[in-house]
Amino acid sequence: MNADRHLDDLELYLQRASILDAAASTLGGAHGGKVRILLEGGVSALAKPEAGIAEGAQVVIREVAAWTLARELGWADLVACTVLRDVPLVGGGTGRASVQLLWPDNAQPDFDITVYSEHDVWRAAIFDAVIAHADRSHNWLGLPDESGAYRLKLVDHGYALDFPGRSFESAFYKRHEGEQIPDAYRARLRRCEHLRQERHLRELFADNQAPLDAALARAGSLENSGTLTI
Amino acid sequence: MLHVEILRNEWSAGRQRVVARLEVKRGAVTYDGAAEWAGVVPASFRDPESGEEIDRHDAVHYLNALHRYLNGDYVFATEAHEEGECEFELGAEIPLAPSVGVTPTPEPGESHAVRPAQPA
Prior knowledge:
The complex is a heterodimer of chains A (230) and B (120). Chain A has 230 residues and is an alpha+beta fold. Chain A folds into two domains: 6-101; 108-225, no CATH class. Chain A is 34% helix and 20% strand. In chain A, a hairpin with a 5-residue loop joins β7 (140-144) and β8 (150-154). In chain A, α3 (118-131) packs across α7 (210-225). Chain B has one domain (3-116). The longest helix of chain B is centred in the middle third of the chain and has 11 residues, at 59-69. Mean pLDDT of chain B is 84; it is low at 111-120. The interface between A and B is large, with 52 and 50 residues.
């Protein structure tokens, strides 16, 4: 069981803190509705409204579920805290969005994975296998530390968890595919047998539990086999 | 000339920065930008919509589809467009549009929080 109940407070803050300001990107990519929000207390976060992208309702719940599963695995350092809440929309009104804390601006996107420690790469490989990420040929950050090394942060989880029409793709998984999972990481997979936040996850997938059940089955299979193969 | 910009979102700083530009010259994709950003531009990618593998040698097709693949929260590609349809140069810093969709409505006894604007 994780000793991470302090993160419950962080999630509660993200869900309930008043929004002081919202600023949208001038130029947009595939998701044109992303908004940086400023919360009371001075914390900035990134909101990705479900209205801004195709199948947005499916995208935003996966962003939240990925964070929750990272917590369950005890790897909350890899993924930004993410919740669902209503936010102001570009063009007016409000709508449901995934809201995640921001990594610092000096984090470098999509560096070659060889710059990261094996500890980070293994954890990312296992995490991606559990959530069946379909968009991890990129979508990570390197956060520089004082030694000049980079610590891995994983971003953009909207196309994980068996997103319809997308297939599993992860550069981290490919790096260790078929290898024996080190015991320390294999032990983390056992946590998925007794999820502390199972009710929360079930509520996210209230319309269709299959993606969540599939993720938990993958975690179980990886733990049982001890081999990184799904 | 058909081209795309690669932008970095610097959310905390409140800006977007044009870090690279790809364009089709004589049928090939050329890269203009700092070397550190060249690595985010793939040699090939799988189009998330069609599932098709698209190679950089298929220059126009590559540029037209890149925004569907490179669409992250912190770095993304614009949709392909022609010269004159874009006013942002390499290195340009573009501020986020402030106070989108929010209207200040402080109420007595409450904090100075801004409540979401209601649709007209």
